[in-house]
Design a protein that fits this description.
five-stranded mixed beta sheet; globular
Amino acid sequence: MKGVGIYIDVIDSREIQSRDDLEFKINQLRNFFSENKEYGIFSIWKGLDEFMIIAPNWEFAAKAVIKVQELLHPYEQRFVLTGFEDVYTDRPVHEMDNKEFALLADGMIRLKKTKLYVEIILDDQAILLDSVSIILNAFISMRSVFTRSQMEIYSQNKAGKSQVEIAREINKSQQYVSKTLNGIKSENLGLMEEKLYRIIAYGIDQGNTD
């Protein structure tokens, strides 16, 4: 089957002092993908700070990238993505021998030399995937400066909880939640994410089903 490979590297992982906190978040990440298999297959690739996700299509690849950033926050990550022409998702990642794994590894070497968060190794849909890469880089960059509290409020709001529910859960006022969401421009981020999925749905994944 076709799919999208995502190689994830935690930035400056050797400088992270709280390894227990990172490990806790990685376990949360593993549990999320175990419970939401439609996002793709998640696997530790190299050590504690490099992961691989095999997503079924570009929409879920983008969703997976966004979810990884949320769940691993405040630790930053780099993402390299490429399409897989033929991947056997019933096989453990370490047993796969697709040529695309080499492309992902080379892409990560290049990405580490830049200040970007995302590189998409382009194929025959280069223009559209370039747009996806630009939006994802901007989106991740805007959220990377969130505090833990801001990311928690943003994530709960994005999941559909009301400001009153969020305020009750974090023991803050509704006004505090509203001010936080306005301060991080959550509406703008929502519109950006919607645009990202529209580009993918009508320009990339739809074309792959023709």
